[in-house]
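User: Let's play a game. I give you a shape written as tokens, and you guess the letters that built it. Ready? Here's round one.
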């Protein structure tokens, strides 16, 4: 052979002194064999296209992958064979121009990622090519090569996903959510669009981690993510920020009514029991809501606002949602001051127990009391338990507060001439402490109260804890002889399994079901009736809380209610008044209250703006409900006059005057207000900062206070139609 002759001398032996032969240039046939060898190796392949961008050649390897003969592929547009897709990696790398554009521009192509047109599986190629010209400079087409990069593409995608997604839940991580929010807010600012941000935090998740272990906690987070995904679906973007924190972005949503409904649905769904490795556990959730551009124009502002709203929701008792308002900054400081003062209240005798009667409906006889804590602050006056109890729970004061309440109630009840039962509320945190049964035993011994006279009211949230530990505590309490009542049934963590297995003798239906039970198309009445029937089947006594009007009393009575607690009979009474009534003999109370329940009307004293025509007046709002308000400060306003109330923070409520007497007006809202998630009311929509900027104000988040939105400083105005009067807490007087 030629190669052998090159290597050997005469006689077949090599001649070490011989000069090495000059290298031979490969001819065309050799080069073709070399290219064939490269194609067959699987390391790469070749392609070519004519001047019109039609395929003129492609290696057999590609034909096999596509399942087509070369003749069937020749003549097809190259763009049909090599599909350029702009996925997330391409966007990050700034790639993704159409292949047809590159070919028409006659640019060189270097390692362009394309997808093969194969439906059965995903195949990615990297192609390169250069334009070919003849000797006269005429464009002839393209010649290039390619290789399979499917494995590398998958690795890149996995790496990109790890950087952008949470490995545990599969949701977007903090980095991706921040990037998406920033992108949305940047685009929406120029388009004057809105975007809502929800911050979520799981309540009592740490307890699950501590009692069931971190693997159980991880499984719980996965199930939480699945439930959130079902609620959010395609309405928004969902992510996990880390730990038990989640975030939801809702583009183009600023209706606080819809957002409140979404938040309530999220809280309800996440509060349903979970099953993990055969164990049943329950948690809760708190939600903070902020909306751009009202509460923040950029990512940092909006996240801070949502975080502050979340903090307020958790501070309000957990299991709640809150909308951001500029007042929350002051509220956070107020909470800190109340916490400091509460420590002093425990030691300085500022706390007292009052007792609300529980009445038997058939004869209006008092059959027991619920002990309710009252705090009379030396400077602030009366502070509601709805304010200081959540603060006590967050600051680890709840055990000391609960111990004081138990001792005070038992001490008072021991002095009653008629040994009626007294119900004392027990927080979930206090119930879960190992020494709680011992505390109850010591209090019973110290006050010498009959154990049957004490009823411990326990909320459903106790079942979020360790089931075995709960059972031990329940057994110990039953051994003492005290009564057990399930409080606020149906408001968060209801389950028939523990209702049937736990040793409750009483069940209290929360006032939330009573509030709307007489309204048309409201199903609360049916829920009350069904719960009464269920409890009676389980031989449990049912107490209906929060009855205030005769129509409510008649409805719950028709549903089978035997015991009622509410203002229609009595508010909570101080112990000396309870003692006096019990000493008189039979304690009987005749019901007294309005014939019909109306939406909760809150007494307020709040300065607002009233807009009519091209004039703005200052007034005071005395009462507020979802459907209307009582206003003071304007004289001569006829009934049926249309007014716009400026409630501050961009809230405008269109209303109509339904009652007018002297300087006092009763107005009805065109659109009912909605709950702010914390017992307050707010409008569904607010004035956009973009509208305020158009009226001359600087573009920014909504500041506190009212806004002079009618006309401008130089606008011509007609004479005012009404007389404005000055309003104080006690009187109204005319002003010039």
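Assistant: Ready! My guess for every position:
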């Amino acid at each position: 052979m030629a190669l052998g002759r090159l290597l050997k001398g005469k006689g077949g032996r090599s001649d070490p002194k011989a000069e090495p032969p000059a290298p031979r240039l490969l001819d065309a046939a050799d080069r073709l064999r070399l290219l064939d060898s490269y194609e067959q190796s699987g390391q790469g392949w070749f392609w070519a296209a004519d001047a019109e961008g039609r395929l003129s050649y492609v290696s057999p390897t590609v034909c096999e992958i596509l399942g087509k003969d070369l003749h069937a592929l020749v003549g097809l547009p190259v763009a049909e064979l090599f599909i350029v897709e702009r996925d997330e990696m391409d966007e990050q790398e700034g790639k993704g121009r159409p292949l047809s554009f590159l070919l028409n521009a006659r640019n060189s192509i270097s390692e362009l990622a394309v997808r093969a047109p194969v439906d059965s599986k995903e195949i990615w190629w990297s192609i390169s090519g250069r334009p070919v010209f003849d000797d006269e400079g005429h464009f002839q087409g393209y010649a290039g090569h390619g290789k399979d990069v499917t494995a590398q593409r998958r690795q890149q995608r996995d790496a990109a996903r790890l950087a952008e997604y949470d490995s545990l839940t599969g949701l977007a991580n903090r980095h991706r959510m921040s990037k998406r929010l920033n992108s949305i807010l940047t685009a929406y600012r120029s388009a004057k669009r809105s975007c809502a941000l929800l911050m979520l935090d799981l309540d009592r998740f740490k307890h699950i981690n501590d009692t069931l272990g971190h693997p159980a906690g991880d499984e719980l987070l996965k199930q939480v993510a699945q439930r959130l995904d079902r609620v959010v679906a395609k309405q928004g973007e969902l992510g996990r920020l880390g730990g038990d924190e989640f975030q939801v972005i809702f583009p183009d949503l600023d209706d606080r009514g819809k957002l409140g409904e979404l938040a309530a649905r999220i809280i309800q769904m996440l509060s349903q029991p979970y099953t993990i490795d055969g164990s049943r556990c329950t948690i809760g959730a708190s939600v903070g809501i902020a909306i751009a551009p009202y509460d923040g124009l950029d990512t940092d502002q909006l996240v801070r606002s949502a975080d502050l709203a979340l903090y307020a929701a958790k501070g309000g008792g957990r299991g709640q949602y809150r909308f951001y308002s500029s007042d929350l900054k002051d509220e956070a400081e107020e909470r800190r001051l109340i916490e400091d003062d509460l420590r002093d209240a425990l030691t300085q005798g500022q706390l007292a127990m009052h007792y609300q009667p529980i009445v038997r409906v058939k004869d209006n006889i008092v059959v027991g009391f619920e002990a309710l804590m009252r705090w009379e602050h030396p400077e602030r006056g009366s502070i509601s338990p709805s304010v200081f109890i959540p603060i006590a729970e967050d600051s680890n004061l709840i055990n000391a507060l609960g111990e004081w309440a138990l001792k005070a109630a038992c001490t008072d009840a021991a002095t009653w001439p008629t040994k009626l039962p007294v119900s004392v509320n027990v927080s979930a945190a206090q119930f879960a402490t190992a020494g709680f049964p011992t505390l109850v035993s010591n209090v019973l011994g110290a006050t010498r109260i009959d154990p049957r006279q004490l009823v411990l009211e326990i909320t459903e949230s106790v079942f979020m804890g360790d089931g075995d530990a709960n059972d031990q505590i329940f057994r110990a309490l039953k051994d003492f002889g005290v009564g057990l009542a399930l409080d606020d049934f149906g408001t968060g963590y209801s389950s028939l399994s523990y209702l049937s297995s736990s040793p409750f003798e009483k069940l209290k239906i929360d006032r939330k079901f009573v509030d709307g039970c007489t309204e048309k198309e409201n199903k609360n009445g049916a829920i009350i009736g069904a719960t009464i029937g269920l409890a009676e089947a389980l031989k449990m006594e049912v107490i209906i809380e929060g009855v205030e009007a005769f129509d409510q009393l008649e409805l719950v009575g028709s549903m089978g209610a035997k015991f009622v607690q509410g203002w229609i009979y009595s508010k909570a009474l101080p112990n000396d008044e309870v003692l006096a009534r019990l000493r008189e003999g039979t304690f009987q109370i005749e019901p007294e209250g309005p014939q019909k329940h109306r939406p909760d009307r809150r007494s307020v004293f709040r300065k607002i703006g009233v807009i009519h025509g091209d004039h703005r007046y200052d007034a005071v709002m005395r009462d507020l409900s979802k459907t209307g308000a009582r206003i003071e400060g304007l004289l001569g306003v006829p009934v049926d006059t249309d007014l716009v109330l400026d409630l501050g923070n961009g809230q405008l409520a269109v209303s109509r005057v339904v009652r007018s007497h002297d300087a006092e007006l009763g107005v009805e809202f065109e659109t009912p207000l909605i709950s702010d998630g914390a017992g307050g009311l707010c409008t569904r929509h607010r004035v956009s900062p973009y509208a305020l900027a158009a009226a001359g104000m600087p573009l920014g988040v909504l500041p506190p206070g009212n806004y002079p939105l009618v006309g401008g400083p130089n606008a011509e105005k007609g004479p005012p139609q009404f007389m404005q009067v000055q309003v104080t807490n006690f009187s109204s007087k005319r002003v010039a």
